[in-house]
Amino acid sequence: MNQVAIVMGSISDWPTMQSTAAILTELQIPFCKRIISAHRMPQTLQSFAQQAITEQIDVIIAGAGGAAHLPGMLAANTTRPVIGVPIESHALHGIDSLLSIVQMPAGVPVSTMAIGTAGAKNAALQAASILALQDRALQQRLTDYRAAQTQRSVESEAQLD
Ligand code: RP5
């Protein structure tokens, strides 16, 4: 059973979304990876999102760039939480992706992360926070992850000249 689905609009999104996969793996959250383009594969998008509940996918993380309709259209077809990651596009540096994802109409929410790798990482952590509401062991792993991050920041001070 995959608790999380990482959905991308294109294989070209994978270098960014690998950061999502890495953190989900570290937190021992089972996930699947799919390439489903909102524009090139609209029927697949609809059936995937409509089956998310029966497939026991709890959270969908969707990375897309440019005219990034993927997260919004997934959210339009499911009530599972959708977390959108704006991919850093070449032409407009991801501002296009960000605005496409964040400006959802009332009634169909998408949780929108930062542009690029920071957003991809935070999407995994946001999904973990949602899943941890019902999973004490995961909550502990998430707490440990944060503690290790804090420790690295504290220790980084030693690198100052
Ligand atoms: C979007 O268009 C994808 O999410 C990708 O970020 C962007 C460009 O896709 P490719 O032309 O690289 O396949 O749908």
TrEMBL record:
Q: Where is the PurE domain?
A: 2-153
State if Isomerase is listed as a keyword.
Answer: yes
Top-level taxon in the UniProt lineage: Bacteria
SMART domains noted in UniProt:
AIRC
Keywords on this record? Answer: Isomerase, Lyase, Purine biosynthesis
What EC number(s) would the UniProt record show?
5.4.99.18
Q: What class of enzyme is it?
A: isomerase
Its biological purpose is as follows: Catalyzes the conversion of N5-carboxyaminoimidazole ribonucleotide (N5-CAIR) to 4-carboxy-5-aminoimidazole ribonucleotide (CAIR).
- Tell me its family: Belongs to the AIR carboxylase family. Class I subfamily.
Listed name of the protein: N5-carboxyaminoimidazole ribonucleotide mutase
Q: Which organism is it from?
A: Loigolactobacillus zhaoyuanensis
